[in-house]
Amino acid sequence: MLTVFELIKFLPKTNCGDCGEPTCMAFATKVITAGLDIKKCPHLEKLPEEFKMEEGARPVAGKMEDPETALLRELRQKIKGMDLALLAPDLGAQVSGASIELPFFNDIVVVSSESLKSKRGIELDPRDQILIYNYCFFGGKGPLSGEWVGLESFPNSVSKVSTLRRYTEDKLAAEFSEDPGSLKKRVEAMGGQFVEPCSADLCFDIRVFPKVVLRFHYWQAEPEEGFDAKVKVLYDRRAIEFLDLESLVFAAERAVEKILED
Hints:
DUF3786 domain-containing protein; TATA-Binding Protein; 8 helices; ACDS_complex_subunit; five-stranded antiparallel sheet; four-stranded antiparallel sheet; alpha+beta; 3-methyladenine DNA Glycosylase II, Chain A, domain 3; about 15% strand
């Protein structure tokens, strides 16, 4: 039975969205787990042998299975074949026996070939688990550039820019429209670092992983001037070498969710 990662090899891996799904990974997951028609990808140059069978005759793995659950299962299988101790220095993690301890926001997660746990004892959201595994798979090769850019600077990011704006930038701006003091307290509480000099009213960094840092620029609303509050998220220019686009957007979304948590 073809797996999600095997199917990915046949896809263009551009996350163009022409199939109706946000990424090639999401498309492949739905094809394998939910029976989505593979022909919805208009850029397939070669059809996998398994999909050359007559329509209706092709077996579908776990047709009613949640794609998120199916993807996590595959990621757990994939991590078993990796030498985590060898990857640890590049990931910014510490080796601890057969596991590595990896900073994740204001927590540390313990990653092994068999499990993924929070040192704080909290239950990890499945989406966070996928994000952590993806960071490990990218390998963390090389240093950060120290140069900050917007998401729009990365290739094939057009469809993701609006998602980042809606679920991260606009959401944070609306919540703290005229209250930078409260925002500052929330950022301090989750371990964010304030940046000076700052070209906005407030600038701060949120470290998702050792090599994935988000820089937020916040401008307070000025109603008398007709200006709404605004937030801009920046990434290190090499961020795309440490996580895929979808994961980078989700990391920013999770950062805002954590800032808003009581």
